[in-house]
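Posting this for the archive.
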Amino acid sequence: MKPISLDDIRGPALYAGIREDFRKRVIAHKEKRRIDVGDRVFLVFEDRVTLIFQIEEILRAERISDTAEIRHEIELYNQLLPTADSLSATLFLAVPRVAPDGSEVDRRAELDRFIGLDEHVILHIGPHSIRAEFEEGRSTAERISAVQYTRYRLSPEAIAALRTPGTTVEIEIDHPVYRHRARASEEMRASLAADFDA
């Protein structure tokens, strides 16, 4: 997938004028690339559209207009792009603030139940099973971040399967305290397959 460049980024001043329309388009685009796995985990598979949006939003929020700083943000987010042999997804751990009984949730304790998750996320594409590679530094033996960056390295055979209409695509989590499996829509399969044509 073609890396994001400075030419792809409008920056805070120009972005303000198109933000609402762009946000609506990105939200619709993300719907085709999001999968909920149980009630606590969801993943969004990244591509140029999702990452350009994130860059524009961070530049806006932090009022970054210096070219060198913008280039730095682009460099960071380019690391999350799919590659010629991999898909990339941001994994979110959704921890509620309030329990079903109305009591306040200890969010840190609830998050810590997921320690070790980096060994337990699998992408299934037809007969191919690919364990997620997690970005280092976002979890330890004692702590885990609610946002994780994952990568899935696909063999040529797995890519061919992904490109084949009707191939089953699923995400499985087999963590000791959280076991769920979710099937992607055919629309999502097609969107992910398109990453290898970009």
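The helical segments are 11-31, 48-61, 67-78, 107-112, 156-163, 186-194. The CA atoms of residues 13 and 198 lie 29 Å apart.
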